[in-house]
Amino acid sequence: SIPNKWTSRADQPTLDIVVSLYGEPLDQTERMFKELRALSSFRDLEVNFHVYTKDLSADIALLREKLATPHVTILHNVGREGGTYMAHIVRQYDDLARHTMFVQADMHDYEAARARIVDYFRPNTGVLPLGITESCDCIKCVDSWDESREFPRIEELYVGLNGKFCPGRLALSYLGQIIVSATRIRSRTHDTYAYLKQILEAGPSHFIHDDPRQDEFKDDESNPYFGHTIERSYMVLWGC
């Protein structure tokens, strides 16, 4: 028989919680970790926290001790949280947990996110957004509450990922917090994530920084405008 290329942690009840950290209070983050571990939906899982900090002066030993995880990594402060998530996938692609939860250390609307996990997370979950969900017209994707905020790269992402024209509407996710299965992550190639990471972390001379944007959005290496496109596009990336 042909061996399964990915017989490993993804075949066990495992969950990796990937946390993008910068300067959030450690006591707050420690409390969040304890509360997440205690969720009824996670009690039967082997839960591991992977902390990525973009504070180059961070005390790794202190973070490991306070947050009770050996998995603490310093990254350069580029690419927003999307760059952090892509970095984790690129590193762990062949050793993913059955599910991965991507969040920032200061989760948005934390109580509502926890409630969504308890109400909707199951062993067969493919993708579960933990923030706001909306939809947009694929050809002209705008935020529903402000039509001046347009994200034309979302259409390009859909076409590039799927090799076909856009449907009428696309599901969007907001706030950069989501749970996804290893199966859904691996529905895209390792090279896809490496490319998205490269674009998110691109220097100031890269063409991605020439994209038109609205005045309220900044654009630099640590906070690229394209990062807002990725934040909205996880449902597209993972086939929803």
From TrEMBL:
<dbReference type="InterPro" id="IPR021838">
    <property type="entry name" value="DUF3431"/>
</dbReference>
<dbReference type="Pfam" id="PF11913">
    <property type="entry name" value="DUF3431"/>
</dbReference>
<protein>
    <submittedName>
        <fullName>Uncharacterized protein</fullName>
    </submittedName>
</protein>
